[in-house]
Amino acid sequence: MGRRRKLEALADFQRALKNKYGLGEGDSYKPWLRVQDVRSRGNSGKIQGIKVNREHHMLSEHESCFFYIAEFCDSVIDIREQFPLLPLDLSVKIAKTFGVDHPIVPGSKSPNVMTTDFVLTRSDGVNTWYEAVRVKPAEKLTDKRIAEKLDIERNWWQLQGVPFHLFVMTKQNQIQSKNIQWVTAPVRQGRKFPTDLVESALALIFPGTMLTEEICDEFVREFKIEHDDALVLLKTLIATKMVDVDLDKPIADTGILNIVKVTDFKVVRHHAS
After folding, report:
1. Are residues 223 and 249 in the same domain?
2. What is the pLDDT of residue 41?
3. Ramachandran angles phi, psi of 231, nearest 5°
């Protein structure tokens, strides 16, 4: 882990930009704030991306919850976290316009660079667009100061012509996120399986309710693999969306899969060739 950067004065902000923090897209993007730059307020950490081959810096459990859901969405092709609202003069002017105090560097009177938790790049195959997302715990939404800062942020993005959304973690989307985290873990670790094995495994799975244990036992019998590898194979099939499952109910805790659809692998291979 790199050392904590100093971000307290204009010279620090200029140095950060010179070093490409807050700039770039895809693999080359460097978040303005990294895990090591912020004193931990809870469950901060890094998540290896699947769609983008780099580590994403999450500063809270709420951010991690959103990240897993967003990355699993087909239309999301890039995620840039801790995105700086620059130039600084613009957010300062917005604050003055609304008659609210702009965030300052702690212990000083200097304006601080505001950040948006996530900027998503989305595509429907024809059009590409951006969306900005702020993550906030429900209990903080009634805080007047937080509302003021949200107004600055929302209007900053409105001036860019970018939709701004607020994400609040709930029990339901937390279940979805944990399911996605569970099934995508092997893919994030680089696990892969031969094409023939994948095709044979798909032939053993059918729409409806199935137990993960029963599917894994079947994989063990048919393919002569270890049980742990069988579970990784099943997770990979779900993570790559060859097997579409209901994510609204806990999977790891119950061992129950509600399978919606199983991809015809021959069709997939035909389109890829």
Report:
1. yes
2. 61
3. -65, -40
